[in-house]
């Protein structure tokens, strides 16, 4: 796959907010919904509106077709974070676990929990923004089951040193917000950005407060 070939040059996004003299680094992490789609650009636009000197680029760790369980099994996130350390991660994962292999909710939740542990092993003060995933009409029940389980996972993993923000990307996401039954349309991109951005601001503020 393309991303496995160019992984060495993928970097986390850089926000020009200093914490003890170092820039904060933000990594969007996920599958094709993170890779292909424009919600990241909308977050960049929101950010530049509020910070004209922002150094925002398009780099990310969105990998088409990737499953949360496979990323864990192959230890991929560990390597990505070694190459490109991050202070803040947004994670939207689980779509391919459901639509490709019909993986059950407990296995997906276990994988997501391991990914959180790996983020913290890389950075004990990691700020984690975790999404309940957008709808998949073809497998709606499975998505609902996963999304119903994610809040308990986030709560159980939340900590003062490495807080987790839960973002609901499922509620109020309609068929019109999907362009192909899987990926967000233009309106869906706006909704995803509007969901992630407030949590990103809170994560940045919490890092500044802890500095």
Automatic annotation (TrEMBL):
GO terms assigned for molecular function: phosphatidylcholine lysophospholipase activity
One Pfam family in the UniProt entry: Lipase_GDSL_2
SUPFAM superfamilies linked to this entry: SGNH hydrolase
Keywords: Hydrolase, Signal
Signal peptide: 1-21
Domain SGNH hydrolase-type esterase: 29-188
Protein name: SGNH hydrolase-type esterase domain-containing protein
Organism the protein comes from: Lasiosphaeria miniovina
